[in-house]
Amino acid sequence: MSTNPKGFLQRAFTDNHLQLITSGKTERIRYVAVNVSEKWSDPEEKVRAAYYAELIYRYGYAPEYIGVEVTVPDRTPADRADLVIFRDKERTKPFGVIECKRDGISDAEFKQAVEQAFGNGHAHKFRAEYIGVIAGQTRAFYDCSDKFGVLEREANIVADLPIQYGKPEEFKYYKDAFPKPDISAVSRDDLIKTIRKCHQPLWGGGRLSPPMAFGELTKLIFLKTRDEKTPRKKGEPYNFQIKTNETAQRLATRIKDMYAIERQREPDVFNDNIKIDDITLKNVVLHLEGINLTATDLDTKGVAFEQFMDGFFKGDFGQYFTPRNIIAFTIQMLDIQVGDYVMDPACGSGGFLLHALDHVRKQASSYYTDENSKEHFDYWHSFAEKRLFGIEINEEIARVAKMNMIVHDDGHTNIIGNDALEPLANIGRKNASFAAIVGLDPETGNRDESKGFDKIPTNPPFGAVIKEELHSYLSSYELSRYISKSDGKDEDDAEDTSGDYKAGKKAVKQRSSVKTEIIYCERIWQLLKPGGRAGVVLPDGLLTNASLQGVRDWILERFKVLAVVSLPQFAFAHFGAGVKSSVLFLEKRDPSVPASDDEAIFMAVAENVGYDATGRTTYQVEVLDETPAQLRIERQSCDLFDWEVTFDWVPGEGNKPGHWSERHRYVVPNSGLLGKYAAFKLDPEPFFV
Known about the structure:
The chain is an alpha/beta fold.
């Protein structure tokens, strides 16, 4: 027997409890037992029909006892209840009154619907025992009997509507205990709606900054996934949900106690308390409790969170987000392998790390065809747990990166909240694994220069300056003395002519301020092991300004430049940055191998990167396969590479037409500039694409 609400709906059509009636262009749904028909295109009607089917198959109520569009007596103005469960076949003794709303309504609209349901349930001559509000995955039920006051909205909450006129269960969701509900996987669209519904009360129109609000959501999603993964017997309830007669205060106490236990187990994941008020916490739990994030497909979660954050990280927070196509291109060019130690020293929301993880996860599928096997899981999860590192100076954004990793089934992240330019020993004290990889001796602070990370994909911050008066570590960087004129330093620095910057020799005078991207180049060199490679997004000014020739010479002396790919002016405009940039691919030289003027460099210009300055897509699209109203596979081409994208069809609601919803995408090997670079490596002659 299906336990999926959509399965219940299909069964109701099959068993002729529901009928679709088409008249011209109009489609209506008929509730057969009560002979009521309504417009099927209404989003609320789809919610009502799905729950009507649940009432029959999950809760055990006979269709003849369920009223549809029932007039509530003594209500002014006249009101109709969406669904009423009666105790008698004549439908005169109400047991439960249900209000149905479209999925995705705001918390304020949901609260208004609760009041509407109470008004109907408390109406004179129509006193129901229970009321409920259904809005997609978000559901709330209340005991409205005489033992509670008419204004009570907390102590009278019940976990779920009783089954077959019984008493409410203590919890709503149980593991494998049909007809009691179990939590279930969701589609990408449903997951995006849920994330938005959770973020809205947390952000609260500006009470918390968006990253701080997202950080609080991080903690609750962390706790939710841990609860899902906790071993429990068949028929046992989940803990991350609202119990019968549990006030917001009691729920908050219980959730915070659960969180405190998990914090002790994983002190490196989260290091502070839940900071939101009890009512907000209750609303977030209400939105999340019915979803099984662990069972939801990894691609679904990846696409949902990436698209949500694509819109989230703009304006003030655009610096923490790199467009997906630039990330995917960089990861493919570096060809990260399961044995690589990978570091992003400016990881922001974690985009480079997640794409590196996804790249390795796809490699696992070429070795183990069963993606649910222990071998497949261990292959990529061990990489995520032990070899994937990030550093982020903004603690709020670091939380976002941690949550991103947790959502992708990795709760053991190595995201280090720190200034990536501080002395390596300082960072090593925060993370022992980091210290071991870069060869730091915790006793002496000495370093084994032969050790370091294998791959560094990163987009370091541009334009800001590091001032010696605020950052005492500046003078420890060689590149703070490789700059001529005023580029990268304060205007009041006296001009120093004692150093020959064109020859790459360091100037005698130490600069009092240097642009961040310059110092990041040296930190990347320090983090890499000899032979290690980096893909770095850098402003074109660093590649062309005469005053930075010394910096370029320093780079050429210590790195082999593998490739330079120029990006269009608008590549980062959608996220609030308009600096012309390129992606440099560098390999750290072995100290014993000197630079050579004969080294070939792959150079290319990418004009179409898959989107324009407004964020609209600019791909050339080829349809590879399509089953109308079911499945569609496209090849989306740009200069960087091609995507192969799989879509599922989502039917329209109300006046909104149906649409294709992305399920999964992967980079087509050797397409676009990736293919050009592969050919170049076989015969490395200098050329320009």
